[in-house]
Design goal:
Helices cover about 70% and strands about 0% of the residues. The chain is mainly alpha-helical and about 400 residues long. The longest helix is centred in the middle third of the chain and has 29 residues, at about 130-155. It is globular and about 55 Å long.
């Protein structure tokens, strides 16, 4: 289903937006980029930009061969097989990579667990689920389109940084033209807002509009909130930590016709995942130091070094797990499944300590973890524990 929708979207974009479906970068007229360098009167800075995008193709192919499976942005890098795709299938793969699949998985988890939590607390509404399913699916679609808007606009404005940090991404690799990217981003943003406006209450629409707005300001100049560690962390923490988890649950209750009330598990998850999302905002920069410095982006990793920041991130996550265990123990009777919640978070904390020691002890030059070990830490520790939290959530 996913690839079918992508193929339909791609067919329309290919005709009007200059979508590049093969690794070679071409001009709009179909001439190879190398011919442009020889005959164009284009200003030197634009030539440099085009050249950097063309060089990214070779880097993308190299990355596909050299990186171990499952590292980086939770496995977003193309494999050797997907790097070879051409034609319509290659273009569909480019659109899929443009959506940053690991962020989609996180959004879907928040959707399904939030809906599941609301239904678990009100089981009398389960027979109504088939009738409510179309509205629920529209809500999921709106969230996915909003997610695509945020990650897409980030790639548009960060293309020069991505050429260094993430040359496998579609725009940086020359597989997706800026015009096509803008078409996807604007279309997804407008469609997402229209869906929420038509289907949900003004409160839910306001929360959704606020989230997509600050998500866009994260990347769009002159605001570019990502330039500073504090505003970057707050933006991601608010969007992915608080608004997503709080909003999905209460949108579901609204659809069921239930009044607002504070749910202890929902309040816990919103708090826990806000801290967790702030950690993700920091650790995603661990291997991006070179490109961020060249792009004038001030991150904690570029300021203090990736090794120290990774250790600090693990310490914050460990404290988050200690807080979760303390919440389970100290909460009033009946607020949580105390044994399951405390035991599950203790298990997660143990995995965090084990994974951090395993990946961050592989030291390279200058007493820093190697690039591959940092990528494995981010993917196999930070993101796996993120998924595990959502797996526990319906049962706490």
């Amino acid at each position: 289903m996913r690839h079918t929708l992508l193929l339909v979207l791609l067919a329309a974009l290919q005709k009007c937006s200059g979508l590049h479906s093969s690794p070679a970068a071409f001009t709009r007229s179909g001439r190879p980029m190398s011919a442009l360098y020889q005959s164009s009167s284009m200003p030197p800075m634009r030539l440099v930009r085009r050249a950097s995008i063309a060089r990214a193709d070779a880097a993308a192919a190299s990355a596909a061969e050299e990186l171990p499976t499952g590292v980086g942005d939770a496995g977003d890098e193309p494999t050797a097989e997907t790097a070879e795709l051409t034609g319509l299938a290659g273009g569909a793969q480019a659109v899929y990579r443009f959506s940053r699949p690991h962020t989609i998985r996180g959004t879907l988890l928040a959707c399904f667990t939030g809906v599941g939590r609301a239904l678990y607390e009100s089981p009398q509404f389960l027979p109504l689920l088939p009738a409510l399913l179309p509205r629920a699916m529209l809500g999921v679609l709106a969230l996915l389109l909003g997610n695509l808007f945020i990650v897409g606009i980030n790639q548009i404005y960060d293309v020069d940084i991505d050429v260094v940090n993430k040359p496998y991404l579609p725009i940086a690799a020359g597989r997706l033209s800026p015009k096509a990217a803008w078409g996807i981003v604007v279309g997804s943003g407008v469609a997402a807002l229209a869906i929420v406006k038509a289907v949900f209450s003004p409160l839910i629409f306001a929360l959704f509009a606020f989230g997509t707005t600050i998500g866009g300001l994260y990347s769009v100049p002159p605001f570019k909130l990502k330039r500073f560690p504090l505003t970057a962390g707050l933006t991601i923490a608010i969007c992915r930590g608080f608004l997503l988890n709080f909003g999905v649950y209460y949108a579901t209750r609204e659809a069921l016709g239930l009044a607002f009330f504070w749910s202890a598990p929902v309040a816990f998850l919103a708090r826990f995942m806000t801290v967790y999302a702030a950690v993700i905002a920091v650790t995603k920069d661990l291997v991006d130091v070179d490109g961020d410095r060249k792009g004038g982006i001030d991150t904690l990793a570029s300021r203090f070094g990736p090794g120290k920041v990774a250790v600090g991130a693990s310490a914050v996550l460990l404290l988050n797990y200690v807080g979760a265990i303390a919440t389970a123990v100290a909460a009033p009777a009946g607020a949580f499944r105390r044994v399951f919640m405390a035991g599950g978070h203790a298990l997660a904390a143990a995995y965090l300590v084990y994974g951090s020691a395993k990946h961050l002890s592989a030291m390279g030059e200058g007493a820093e973890p190697t690039e591959n070990s940092l990528k494995a830490y981010y993917s196999n520790v930070v993101w796996n524990l993120f998924y595990f939290e959502y797996a526990m959530y319906p049962f706490i």
